[in-house]
Design goal:
The complex is a heterodimer of chains A (542) and B (192). With 542 residues, chain A is mostly helical. Helix content of chain A is 73%, strand content 0%. In chain B, strands 3, 5, 6, 8, 9 and 10 form a six-stranded mixed beta sheet that branches. The chains are: A mainly alpha (542), B alpha/beta (192). The interface between A and B is large, with 85 and 75 residues. The structure holds protoporphyrin IX containing FE. Protoporphyrin IX containing FE binds next to helix 2, helix 3, helix 14 and helix 16 of chain A.
């Protein structure tokens, strides 16, 4: 078959979108947009990488920082949220063996998150709005530095993302507890208790265990989704506050600076909310996804199921109480909080994540010999990512180390990018490889060689970039700063080469996927499905 | 006396060894699970030993730094420590102002860098001539931001805003802002 034919029709006939169920289509819609936004984040990352070797003449300082502002937002919300939400909106009804609560709501979720991310990105691209994602008060409302309109567009975009997030949260919980039309009444309360881990917790005090009504991955999805919802409340509140100041101060010239908002209190609330994402849903979702992948790859039950459930619950509670590790270098923050929340509670993330690593590796080991597949390779890569990034986080959450590591490239290299690019993204790639045949009704991958190249380039590039950034950080290179005299050029050139490997890996992956499903199939995903979900579930039940 | 160069070079060494060990472990594991052979499931004692080890490592790090890194006990007990000198540092409109440059710091005496911002969140970093970091803190507007420090080596240091405060923040540097004298040893990383 010629190149053009494969490109249009896909590998061996490619994706037949006409035979896809609505849920398959919705999941694919999320994932495709999530992957495109990942590409955008990687391109932005590479622009910054080059800028850190030598400032690029066509990008001024303000625009450089506006790229830095939108880059993590595009990466986290446009890409990671989209891929995770798409997968979970598919898996929740799939594992609960009932139709999703609302298809319309699911469709609206990807439209609002995808659209919101684009609007938020425009605020950086068109208006050079650059308060960075941390939005330290009163920077996001500083109209002396940024045009108020830029901030307003940014917040409108974020509101879109949050609306989609609330819809996702509601849809997931409703799907777990509701009774589909014509079905026997479902025990909603018990289902909710099981999903949240309350059943498991009560079992510790009961003589006879109550049965878990939801499978383990659903428990992980539900617990992570609680954090998603809580985080959306915090971000929305910050958004409203910023909007009030931007409109009052920027558009109507009212002097609101310095009034009411205490910058340290704001920072505490902001990080409390943000850690629900960084330390909560990421770790909970990732652990849940690992468990599911380990069971699917090994074909065995999970080793130590009960411990896994308990660890997920502990992780959720831990994620509510660790925020002070972001304020270890804030002198106004109380020492009590720094030690208890910042150091001691944070140390338990090593334990909860360690439990997940142990359980997954043992589950897979029990099924040996295992065939080397893409999903297995990426899963092991994802586990390695967290084995590297979590200890790096524990190290920086220490009063002694934070004094010399805070705001250096160590934080954003060894910890953040290794966690996101190796830990999270490789886990997501593993899930994509597992779900690919399920979502596409068995489309064959175009090239295994390309899949191998994707794996190695991404793994080596990601670890390498994190390592060189980390070494620069140890040698004093700050994050969020421009160095004009090439002070850290050796590290930055090496990090740049590794960044280019990650970008190339993504281009190869995208090419492989497009050649597998074909452009026809790709666009067909966005056409309405001709199949009724309820019929599929009835068939499956029969 | 241990300084940040010692702490950070130990970190570089220890973390590099750990990272290589973790990578090797996963590579070895990946090879093992593809091989035929007897499957022995981990006993519960192995699991619980592993968990206890994680707890000891996670919390033990803080005991270790409390005992080895001199600025940790100083930070925790600073309400009871009397400083020899206090230097006031003002932040406004992306400009750092100090009463007098250089700030002359006596050796082996506690001093306080007392920073105040009237507008945005900035950072206060003490930087060596080879760009390595001596110490830093956040400078949160209208809040207390006072860093107690003690120097044991002679040297000349720059100060720099270490937190993003807008694009102009990248230029907030005062070179040779701190001079430490009177010590027996020199800070070889920060001699002008
Ligand atoms: C090829 C891929 C990527 C490259 C080359 C890259 C590169 C960079 C660079 C150069 C910075 C600025 C570091 C600094 O000087 O402060 C940065 C910041 C950041 N990146 Fe990435 N990145 C990539 C992918 C991602 C993805 C996919 C995400 C999220 C899902 C992400 C999240 C972040 C975050 C949270 C920051 C911190 C921004 C801040 O300090 O405000 N990155 N990245």
């Amino acid at each position: 078959m010629s190149f053009i034919n494969t490109l249009i029709d896909g590998n061996e006939g490619g994706l037949k979108h006409e035979s896809m169920t609505p849920m398959q289509k919705i999941a694919m819609r999320f994932v495709v947009i999530g992957l495109l936004y990942y590409g955008l984040a990687a391109v932005e990352g590479m622009i910054m990488r080059m800028y850190q070797i030598t400032p690029l003449p066509f990008i001024d300082e303000t625009h450089f920082f506006s790229i830095m502002t939108v880059h993590p937002m595009v990466g986290i919300f446009g890409s990671s949220y989209m891929i995770v939400f798409g997968a979970f909106l598919f898996l929740t009804p799939f594992l609960m063996k009932k139709p999703i609560y609302s298809l319309k709501m699911a469709n609206l979720s990807w439209i609002t998150i995808g659209g919101g991310t684009f609007i938020m990105w425009l605020a950086g691209f068109v208006f050079s709005y650059a308060p960075l994602y941390t939005l330290y008060w009163p920077l996001p409302a500083d109209t002396a530095q940024f045009a108020a309109i830029g901030g307003i567009v940014y917040i409108v975009g974020v509101v879109g993302i949050m609306i989609g997030t609330f819809l996702y949260t509601y849809n997931i919980f409703k799907t777990i507890v509701y009774t589909p039309k014509g079905w026997d009444k479902q025990p909603s309360g018990e289902l909710l208790k099981s999903a949240l881990g309350i059943t498991g917790l009560l079992n510790f005090f009961r003589k006879k265990d109550t049965e878990h009504l939801v499978p383990l991955p659903i428990a992980a999805i539900a617990r992570g989704t609680i954090d998603v919802g809580l985080n959306a409340v915090v971000i929305s509140s910050a958004g409203i506050l910023i909007l009030i100041y931007l409109i009052g101060n920027g558009l109507f010239g009212m002097d609101l600076q310095g009034s009411l908002v205490d910058a340290l209190l704001y920072k505490n609330i902001f990080w409390w909310g943000l850690d629900l994402v960084a330390d909560g849903l990421v770790l909970v979702f990732v652990a849940g996804t690992w468990y599911l992948l380990a069971m699917m790859i090994s074909g065995k039950d999970l080793y130590m199921q009960n411990i896994a459930r308990a660890a997920l619950f502990v992780e959720m509670v831990v994620s509510w109480t660790v925020w002070s590790h972001h304020l270890m270098s804030d002198q106004g923050q109380s020492n009590f909080l720094k030690v208890l929340s910042g150091e001691v509670v944070t140390a338990f993330e090593l334990v909860t994540q360690g439990i997940a690593v142990f359980i997954v590796l043992t589950t897979l080991y029990k099924a040996k010999p295992i065939k080397v597949t893409n999903e297995l390779k990426f899963l092991l890569g994802g586990i390695l990512g967290f084995m590297l990034a979590v200890p790096a986080g524990i190290i920086q959450a220490d009063l002694g180390m934070n004094r010399v590591l805070h705001n250096t490239q160590w934080i954003i290299g060894n910890h953040v990018h290794v966690a996101i690019l190796i830990g999270l993204t490789m886990t997501l790639y593993s899930a994509i490889y597992v779900l690919f045949p399920i979502l596409t009704n068995g489309v064959k991958l175009y090239s295994q060689k390309l899949a191998n190249a994707h794996f190695w380039l991404h793994l080596i590039g990601g670890i390498g970039m994190g390592a060189f950034m980390g070494m620069a950080g140890i040698d004093g290179m700050l994050r969020r700063t421009i160095y004009y005299n090439g002070e850290y050029n050796t590290y930055m050139i090496l990090a740049g080469l590794c960044g280019a490997m990650i970008l190339l890996a993504f281009v190869l992956f995208l090419y492989n996927i497009i050649m597998s499903i074909g452009l026809k199939g790709l666009f067909g995903i966005y056409a309405p499905s001709k199949i009724d979900t309820h019929d599929c579930v009835v068939k499956a039940k029969d | 006396m241990v300084d940040s160069v010692d702490v950070l070079s130990t970190l570089k060494l220890v973390y590099t060894i750990y990272a290589l060990a973790a990578i090797s472990l996963i590579a070895w594991y990946a090879y093992r699970i593809t091989q035929e052979g007897e499957v022995k499931t981990a006993r519960a004692t192995v699991f619980w030993t592993y968990i206890v080890t994680l707890i000891i490592v996670g919390t033990g790090l803080h005991f270790l730094t409390f005992n080895l890194v001199p600025w940790v006990p100083m930070d925790l007990d600073r309400a009871n420590i009397k400083a020899e000198k206090t230097f006031k540092i003002m932040y406004k409109d992306h400009v750092i102002t100090v009463d007098k440059t250089p700030m002359m710091v006596p050796c082996d005496k506690y001093v306080i860098f007392d920073a105040y911002s009237e507008d945005l969140t900035y950072g206060f970093g003490i930087i060596r001539k080879d760009h390595t970091l001596v110490a830093q803190m956040q400078v949160v507007p209208n809040n207390r931001n006072d860093l107690m420090w003690i120097f044991h080596k002679n040297g000349t240091y720059d100060i720099r805003s270490t937190e993003y405060s807008g694009p102009k923040g990248a230029h907030m540097v005062i070179e040779n802002a701190i001079v430490v004298s009177g010590c027996q040893a020199d800070d070889i990383h920060s001699i002008k």
